[in-house]
Each structure stands twice: as structure tokens, then as C-alpha cells.
Amino acid sequence: MTNLPADAVVIGAGIAGAASAFYMASRGLNVVVCEKGRIAGEQSSRNWGFVRQQGRDPAEIPLMMEANRLWRGLERELNADLEWTAGGNMVVFRDEAERAMFGRWLDHAKAHGLDSRMVDRADIDRIATGTNFGEHGAIYTPSDGHAEPAKVTPALARAAEGRGATFLENCAVFRLIREGGRVAGVETEQGEIRAPVVVLTTGAWSSKMLSHLGLKLPQVWVTGSVGRTDPQPEFAKSAIWAGVGIRQRRDGTVNFARRSADHDLMVQSLLHGRSFRKLSRQHAGDFRIRFRKLLLDTAMGHFSDAALANELLRHRVLDPKPNMQVLEEALAELKQAIPALKAARIDRSWAGYIDMTPDLLPVIEAMDEPQGLVIATGFSGHGFGMGPIVGRLVSEIVADGRPSLDLAAFRFGRFADGTALEVGTAV
Ligand SMILES: Cc1cc2nc3c(=O)[nH]c(=O)nc-3n(C[C@H](O)[C@H](O)[C@H](O)COP(=O)(O)OP(=O)(O)OC[C@H]3O[C@@H](n4cnc5c(N)ncnc54)[C@H](O)[C@@H]3O)c2cc1C
Q1: Distance in Å, CA 148 to ligand 1 centroid
Q2: For ligand 1, what atom is nearest to the CA of residue 204?
Q3: What is the residue-wise DSSP string for 123-161?
């Protein structure tokens, strides 16, 4: 292995890990990223591509506003085409209750100077042409955008390499090496890498990885399915939520998905079930619980180092099957709402495991115990848009000793002290 020992080792090459490596390498740090499978193999290439400030928990709004600023310059900074489209984000209301809920959220947006606003039927027609969206109006944030997930994380990784970072694929980290109260590096399937800082950006695997350090992160997996149509006439530059999430790509194809998702029962569901009671009550209609082989297949990794190593090698890239029934129903609904799509067919479909925390907020923190461990995980279905700012904040924590934005809401300790049990105003 080259460039070893490193200033920092990053575990996981999703968007959080690749962006952390990019911004750390930009600060002159010698960074090695270990990825058990391939760059962006899991959530970071499988998501809808929404980059939104709209509807965020108030604690996330300042981060997302800064992320939005970074996104606007990212293609230039990375010298790459990311299909960044500054077309806004629109949520079409299904009823008056939803309108009222977003009305309350708008107070937070205004307090931060965000350009979100309520829009009426005529505005909706300008934002998305030829649609039959309902009569209850919508909320629209013109400064929001979207990008192509399959391009963004690989571009961050390439740019990070250009600034001296090393990415090791097929390189699972089995455990963190600790000396005294500090981390001293990682033990990987390709050997040991010594470093005074370890950044843990392991997405859906974080709860298991941390349990081996005696840290209890309540986190469950939820499967989200996504469909893509054949190319269609252009109808909107905005990303849209109207009961179905919709994003028309540059080549005319339309990505679509429902928020409702399948929860495959796992050991984590049982270990952390209590912490998720409130969330599951609030979103009861959105989740279907399923019993799958995964329950047995990933049962022991929480408890034994050897079993975890085995699981990491067996699941190089998590690749759940999409729920085709949900996607076919979603496309039928879309055809009703957007008659121009009446001949659209599903060309591609895929799914990804989303990692959820009980309050739907991430953990971004430099731990006191063990020192040198920085955690950035638990993005709960909306970490793609946050990716660039997360990377920059991690680089500040490592290079400057503190972040430039307030991260108090994203403390790891909130799960133990009870402050995390309120689900925020995220809508
Ligand atoms: C269907 C779907 C739709 C979504 N839509 C949106 C959206 O529109 N907008 C938005 O902002 N977000 C969205 N998200 C969420 C977003 O994709 C995630 O929050 C984000 O990608 C998380 O990035 P990450 O880097 O934390 O995790 P991941 O992308 O999951 O990366 C973690 C990486 O760590 C690796 N790893 C784990 N353990 C180890 C180990 N021990 N050793 C080495 N490597 C390891 C994994 O292999 C993986 O590659 C969606 C997610 C899904 C699945």
C-alpha cells in the first residue's frame, strides 16, 4: 500500500466519505479511503438525486444552505459533469393538513432567509407544464436543485485522488486499532493502516461498526425502490414531490419513487426498536415490515468481530431487489398527474438500503472516547444533498479542531440522553 501511514483513514466511499477525503486532501492532509466494495456502490449512487433545503429539520437548514452554495460551484471545482440542475424543489400538497404543516415549516425557512414560498395553480403550471396536480397548491424553493448520483461521488473521489488521496476498493475495515484512549488506525482485509484520525462514514453499516467500540447507535435499514422511464418530452426542471418523487434527467428519462418503503426485519430492529417507536407511529402508513433471509444473514455481526468481518466480505455491495408492485403503482399515478407521460414505461429499476436514525438526523461529531474518531453517518434518506458540506465540516474538524457550523443537534450522545426522541420538523 502507498502513502502509508496516513494523516486520516476514511472508512466507506459513499458521498460522505468521498467528500470528506476531497476536502481533507484539499487541506493538504494525506488521506486513505477504505471501501469494502466499490466507490458509491451503496446508497450514494442509488438515491433520487434531490438536493433540497426545503422541508429540512430546522437544525439542518444552515447546513443545507451552505451545501447549496457548494453545489453551485461543484462542477467547476471537481472539473466534472454532475448533471447539476438548479431547477428548484416543489412539494404539491395532497390536502389542507399538508398545506398547514408546510405553512408552519415556512416560518423556519423565512427565519433563515430561504427563498421557499407557497405557490398556486398558475405557478405550478409554470414550474411543471401540463400536469393535473391537485387543488391544494404547493410549496416551492427556487434555489434548490438536483444532480446525478451515479456521477457525483465518483467525481469527488477522482478529484480527491487528484489532490493526493488514495482510494482502496475491495478493502473492508474489520476493526479500529486503539492505543490508550485514542484510535491509532484500522485493520483491513489488505493489512493494517496506521493513522491518528479515523473518519467513519459507513452508511448502513455504522451501527454494527460502532457496536464493536461499545458505542450504541440506533439505526435501522429501510429499502427504497426507484424506477426510471424511457426518455419523455421535457415537463419540469424542478425536482417534484407529489405523492411520488419525480426528477426528469437531462436525457429526458424520469426517475420516480414513492416515499413508502420496506423494512426488512433485522437484529437492529429488535435491539433499537424502542427508540423508533415514535417515528414508526408517525410514519405508520409509509413502512411495510418484511421477514427476509437478511435477518438471519446479518444477525451475528453486531456481537462478534469474526462474524462482522464475514458479513462485510459477503455483502461487498448491498443490492436489494426493488419492489416492482410499488413502482408500477407509482408510474400509474404519475400518468394520471402528467398526461404527457401516458406512454412511459419502466426502463430500469433498482433499490437501496437507507440508514435511519430515530430523529431522522445524522451524527456528525469528533468523539471524546476514543479520541481521533470522527463520525459522519445516519443521514436518514437525505444525505446526498448534504454530502459536500459534510465533507467540508469533517475536514474542518480534522484540520482546525472545530467545525465552522454549529453541530450540536448532531451529537452522538443525544440518543443516550434522550434529546433525540423528538422527531423534528422535517417534512
Ligand atoms: C432510494 C434512495 C433514495 C434517496 N434519495 C435521496 C435524495 O433524493 N436526496 C438526498 O439527499 N438523499 C437521498 N437518499 C439518501 C442518500 O443516498 C444517503 O443519505 C447518502 O448517500 C448516504 O451516504 P453515506 O456516504 O453516508 O453512505 P453510503 O453511500 O451508503 O456509503 C457507505 C459506504 O461505506 C462502505 N462501508 C461500510 N462498512 C465498511 C467497512 N467496514 N469497510 C469498508 N467500507 C465500508 C459501504 O460499502 C458503502 O459504500 C436516498 C437514499 C436511497 C437509498
Answers
A1: 14
A2: 30
A3: HHHHHBTT----SS-EEEETT-EE--HHHHHHHHHHHHH
332 pLDDT more than 90: yes
pLDDT at 266: 77
Confidence check: pLDDT of 109 > 90: yes
Q: Using a 6 Å cutoff on CB, does residue 224 contact ligand 1?
A: yes
Using most ligand atoms within 8 A of CB, pick from 202, 308, 318 the residue to mutate for ligand 1: 202
Crossing angle of the two packed helices 387-400 and 15-26, in degrees rounded to 10: 40
Q: What is the whole-number distance in angstroms between the Cα of residue 254 and the centre of ligand 1?
A: 21
Contact, 109 vs 55, CB < 8 A?
no
**Residue 55 CB–ligand 1 contact under 6 Å:** no
Q: Whose CA is nearest to atom 15 of ligand 1?
A: 381
**R_g of the chain computed on alpha carbons:** 21
Give the number of the atom of ligand 1 that is nearest the alpha carbon of residue 377. Answer: 26
Confidence of residue 285 (pLDDT cuts 50, 70, 90): low
Are β-strands 261-264 and 287-290 bridged in parallel, bridged antiparallel, or unpaired?
parallel
DSSP bridge partners of 178: 183
| Spatial separation of the C-alpha atoms in residues 302 and 208, rounded to whole Å | 5
Rounded Cα distance between 366 and 373, Å, is 6
Question: What pLDDT shows up at residue 1?
Answer: 55
Residues 14, 35: Cα–Cα separation, whole Å: 9
- Greater model confidence, 291 or 166: 166
Q: Which pLDDT score is estimated for 260?
A: 65
pLDDT at 300: 76
Statement: residue 280 has pLDDT above 80: no
Atom of ligand 1 nearest to the CA of 381: 15
The protein residue whose alpha carbon is closest to atom 33 in ligand 1 is 12
Give the pLDDT confidence of 75-89 residue by residue, as tens digits: 999 999 999 999 999
Q: How far is CA 244 from CA 247, 260, 321, 333, 338, in A?
A: 10, 9, 19, 8, 12
Q: Which of 384, 389, 390, 394 to mutate to test the pocket of ligand 1 (most atoms within 8 A of CB)?
A: 384
Nearest to 134 by CA among 98, 187, 100: 98
pLDDT above 70 covers what percent of the chain? Answer: 94
Q: Residue 91: CB within 6 Å of ligand 1?
A: no
Q: What is the DSSP secondary structure assignment for residue 372, as one 8-state letter?
A: T
145 lines ligand 1 (CB under 6 A): no
> Atom 14, ligand 1: which residue's CA is nearest?
381
- CATH fold label, 8-417: FAD/NAD(P)-binding domain (3.50.50)
